[in-house]
Write a structure and sequence with these properties.
CATH architecture: 3-Layer(aba) Sandwich
Distance between the termini: 36 Å
CATH class: Alpha Beta
CATH topology: Protocatechuate 4,5-dioxygenase, Chain B
Strand content: 15-25%
Radius of gyration: 17 Å
Number of strands: 11
Structural class: alpha/beta
Length: 272
């Protein structure tokens, strides 16, 4: 079963040459990658490419030197949250740059823990997953994917998912990377958004899922994919000496010129 693109021509360009032109430009502008880093997981935004594409590209460029067999994409549901997490059932994913295949082994391994009874449209229409696919196809054309949609974004669900992912990734002979899809604060004045988003960055750098959740619950920060972020941070804590690094931060006002209501975007990574 093929998942057709739902957002090509809106969130990102419809045609391959248009996407490639943007990604080449943004990659050329990206900071030099640190080839000594071994990335466990990457946090990328998922807004329209005109707003967050450069930020996301810089994140992917930071791992382009690595050999990645598969990506587990942790992304939120913008359709409903009445489930813990669910696996996308498609065998193949269309992008303007070429298709990506499902990692059937990862799907099989994660299936016993997931809820598969949600409507197919949840997966078919979800932009937070689809936005990442052209980037994966451009930087890692041979990689497979296993998208995981998180509905109930609470610490208990994140902890269970982190434990499952750790066992899966740690024991695998293949190179599996976690890709977390999340935007940050939504529709605040730029100064307030930057203050809120810097809290996310600080907690990410400290690998502190508990502090991230606490500040979220007190309205001190926002992240629509906080469940995936917590899962990655909790997973990282199971390793001996993980570290984190911010690659790039921006907000929509820097592209649109409208700083009265902006959305925040962060590219960051956890290294082992």
């Amino acid at each position: 079963m093929l998942r057709k693109t739902a957002h090509a021509g809106t969130f990102y360009p419809r045609f391959a040459d248009q996407i490639t032109s943007l990604l080449v430009k943004w990659t050329d502008e990206a900071p030099a990658a640190n080839h000594s880093e071994r990335c466990l997981g990457l946090l990328l935004p998922h807004a329209g490419y005109i707003y967050s594409g450069k930020c996301a590209t810089w994140g992917m460029a930071s791992i382009a030197h690595e050999n990645v067999d598969s990506f587990i994409i942790l992304h939120p549901s913008h359709q409903g949250m009445h489930f813990d997490f669910s696996l996308s059932p498609y065998l193949e994913y269309e992008t303007p740059l070429g298709n990506l295949a499902l990692d059937a082994d990862l799907y099989k391994a994660l299936s016993p823990c997931a809820q598969q009874s949600i409507a197919l449209d949840y997966h078919a229409l979800e932009h937070s997953m689809e936005i990442q696919l052209p980037l994966i196809r451009y930087f890692f054309p041979e990689a497979k994917i296993c998208p995981v949609m998180i509905g109930n974004q609470i610490p208990a669900v994140a902890s269970d998912l982190a434990a499952t992912l750790y066992d899966l990734v740690y024991r695998s002979a293949r190179r599996i990377m976690i890709l977390v899809s999340s935007d940050l604060s939504h529709y605040h004045p730029a100064k307030r958004a930057e203050e809120m988003d810097q809290k996310v960055a600080r907690h990410f750098l400290a690998l502190d899922a508990g502090a991230l959740w606490k500040d979220d619950q007190h309205g001190q920060l926002e992240a629509c994919g906080i469940g995936g972020i917590m899962s990655l941070l909790m997973m990282a804590q199971r390793y001996t000496s993980p570290t984190a690094r911010v690659i790039h931060y921006t907000h929509s006002g820097e592209s649109s010129g409208n700083n009265s209501q902006v959305v925040g975007y962060l590219a960051a990574k956890v290294n082992l």
